[in-house]
Amino acid sequence: MSEKLATVRLLLVDEGSFHHEEVQIPAGVMAGYDRLIDCLMEDPAVLKRLHVDVSRVCTAELTNERADP
pTM of the full predicted structure? Predict the structure, then answer.
């Protein structure tokens, strides 16, 4: 069975410019964290999929869309 993915929209700042990125993370990992940013920084399954420079993150929000694996 395929892993369910959730889409997270990040607002990043880079030298005074803001831009959005959407990333997909395993949907089940978020339940173990009170804050989404902690999940992005600490969860081994998330870290295996992507690296987020948290010093550039202004906001992180779970979208209503589910990503297809």
Answer: 0.82
